[in-house]
Amino acid sequence: MGNSVIVRRLGLLAVLALCVLLLSLVPFMPSYYVRVVDSILIYIILAVGLNLVVGYAGLLDLGFIAFYAVGAYAYALLASGQFDIHLPFIVVLFIGAAAGAIAGVLLGFPVLKLRGDYLAIVTLSFGEIIRIAINNADDITNGPQGIAGLDRANLFGLPLTSPVHFYWLLLVLTVLVCAGVYYMERSILGKAWRALREDQDVVRGLGINTTTLKLLAFALSAAIGGAGGVIFGSFQRFVSPESFTFQESLLVVLIIIIGGVGNIVGVIAGAVVLVVLPEVLHFAAQYRLLIYGVVLVTVIVLRPGGLVSPRFNLGFIIRKVRTLWLSPSKT
Amino acid sequence: MLKVAGLKAGYGRTQVLFGIDLEVNAGEIVTIIGANGAGKTSTLRSISGLTQIYSGEIEFKGRPIKGLPPEEITRLGVAHCPEGRQILQRLTVEENLLAGYISNRGRSFDEIRTQVYDMFPVLKERRHSLASRMSGGQQQMLAIGRSLMATPELLMLDEPSLGLAPKIINQIFEIIITLSKSGISLIVVEQNAAVALEIADYAYVIDAGRCSVEGGANNVLNDPDLKAAYLGA
């Protein structure tokens, strides 16, 4: 023991310090890089949220971006000159999450009895319906032109204007969302979702209300999507239906599949890979999408379970750190 | 404890049950036997709220339960251990037990789990193994243990001997007797009629969605017509 424990603890501290250092260096990077990191964080939030439905409850939702749109338009309508309503950012953040949750339940009800491919098709259509509705509701949303000049957000007097400000906000929210979802995953609710994913009929026979369970997954996941949308809106200060196409829904689902279904660490890895990849491929100009596709197919062929093994999850990391710190002799 | 009268049920337009009457008194083991497709499983599924009921009455402890959702019926004290065990394969033994516990609003998980582990020591030994790694007999024990997590007063077992070796079948039926002695009322659906009739107090024979014969298990066991039809003797 003795020496090796000290070395191990120092190693752990070094890893933690490196993480903190990297995260605190981000604000000093050129603005372009900060924007990329912001984008990664937004997609982590979205994918962790969608993962509640896809990964834990096992319901394939291909229209997730609709909730993101609901959140973004909540900010656009409630914090801009559009109707001359100027609610504070934090208030709209909660309204956006609530509106997302309501939209989630609205989607949840009709699809309760659908499974597999049918569920995927209906959720996909739902995503498109929301986008097309926004596109056509000229009087409210300005249609395809979108809404510009959204309020500059501020949080309790602190302005949120530069990518660096949003970096800190997103970082805090990412940590909160990951922690919240991790807690849910370990709670009895999370276990019930996993049982639901395994076999809905059996779970119903065990006396579990599968309706509530599914609606709860849809609502919570959509609330996270809605909150993400509010941040997106306040960050871009411009929204238009173009930002909420099926491609975007697909990207969030891909992040989960490439990273590792039902695994927060996997989702984080997936978001990093799928957001950074197109950026580094800028040099290849017209071959970009081709290379992107090849990389995706390669990952799916070589690691069908996702980049990150299901065993390497947040629980595993926390256990490792805890045993190393509290009772290192066991490791 | 349980009273079923004139139960007609089915799946959409396909009627399966054409008038089932049965009764379970407190502390009894009642067995339902009959050929494949006679409606044994559908009877249990109707009682636990999983199958569409066209008409008839179901009363549990004097309270009508027809039309209640399955979670409500489970909460009132009826547990259903499905045919083919239906273990959640990719969850661990303990997570399966937890799934059975979720409907329970009363006693603590740890307390009931300890009882189930006392009854099935093998489950405790393998609590962290994946359910799919268990043998058929162990999975059946897990399925029964999982139903017990709801602390039922009436436990309905659908084909508990299905696909098990004779030695294991005996073990499972020993367990059923133990459960009965602990005060739980039981309905045991079986194709293995000989074993079921041996431990049951009362028996119903279901034929094409109707109760064709009923009586004390011993009488049914010795009925010459039934012997020819179901017991192969």
Overview of this protein structure:
- Chain A: It is a multi-pass membrane protein.
- Chain A: It is found in: Cell membrane.
- Chain A: The chain crosses the membrane at residues 12-34, 40-58, 65-83, 89-109, 116-134, 165-184, 215-238, 250-277, 289-306.
- Chain A: InterPro entries: ABC_transp_permease, LivM-like.
- Chain A: Keywords: Cell membrane, Membrane, Transmembrane, Transmembrane helix.
- The complex is a heterodimer of chains A (331) and B (233).
- In chain A, 72% of the residues lie in helices and 4% in strands.
- By secondary structure, chain A is mainly alpha-helical.
- Chain A has one domain: ABC transporter involved in vitamin B12 uptake, BtuC (Orthogonal Bundle).
- In chain A, the strands form 3 sheets. A two-stranded antiparallel ribbon of chain A has the order 1-2. A two-stranded antiparallel ribbon of chain A has the order 3-6.
- In chain A, α2 packs across α12 and α11 packs across α12.
- With 233 residues, chain B is α/β, with parallel strands linked by helices.
- Chain B has a single domain, classed as Rossmann fold.
- Chain B is 39% helix and 28% strand.
- Chain B contains 10 helices and 10 strands.
- In chain B, the strands form 2 sheets. A 6-stranded mixed sheet of chain B has the order 6-7-8-3-9-10, with helices on both faces. In chain B, strands 2-1-4-5 form a 4-stranded antiparallel sheet, with helices on one face.
- In chain B, α3 (93-101) runs parallel beside α6.
- The longest helix of chain B is centred in the last third of the chain and has 16 residues, at 166-181.
- Chain B is globular.
- The two termini of chain B are 34 Å apart.
- The A-B interface holds A 188, 191-192, 194-195, 198-199, 201-209 and B 48, 50, 69-71, 73-75, 79-80, 82, 86, 88-91, 95, 98-100, 102-103, 146-147, 150.
